[in-house]
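User: Hey, my collaborator sent me this sequence without any context and asked if I could get a structure. I don't really work with proteins. Can you help?
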Amino acid sequence: MKNCLKFKENEFGQKIGLPVQLNIQPEHRFDMLQGRSVRLLPFSAQTLNAARLQQLWESVCTEPDARCWTYLPYPPMSSADALNDALQRAFDFHNATHYVIEADGRAVGWTALLNIQRAHGTAEIGNVYFSHQLKQSRAATETIYLLLHVCFSAGYRRIEWKCDDLNEPSKRAALRFGFHYEGLFRQHYIVKGCSRNTAWFSMLDAEWPELDNAYQAWLSADNFDAAGQQRRRLQDFIQQHQKK
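Assistant: No problem. I've predicted the 3D structure and written it out in structure-token form, which is a compact way to encode the shape of the chain:
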């Protein structure tokens, strides 16, 4: 039986979950995260300076079409001022830490840890904008790795991934990154005037050590050729380490 399904009985013979001892320090902060191909910078006045705002706007306004905004909860950014306003407000998310994604010295997207619940040791990776300069790249995958690594290293026990059930690319990405599909929340939200069913995925702390090894093997320089193309897929490494 998986640890997450184990239980005990109380004095009344009722089944209850096992006790949990969290070790997340109240003063823990999500600071800058440095990877091999990417750097994640928490939103701040210093981070959102004029140069990075301009770089982000250049990423936004050079998108080949508006499909990248379809499943995000806000409309396409119509101007640099609109983008700046949304960034300064952190898109009106609460209990969240947003990051500017910087690759090759340029800001090329943003993402966030949402619904951070220290008391329960849970957080969600969301509000992901991988620009056309970032999609399907080593830096994109390393962005997810850095977020997972900092959460589990800090003592979090569950990281979530949620998306519109009609968002097939996001669902495929969740599985590729090692998340487990948990189910469907029907008529969960109304987004942009449309009904949304939400697909839920999760990753648990007990699963992380094997996934951590798989990510590190995938991110190794030996796994990429001179053109920067992967030699083996992340899924291959995940399957390999889960069999050990």
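In plain terms: The first strand starts at residue 7 and ends at 9. You can pass these tokens on to your collaborator as they are.
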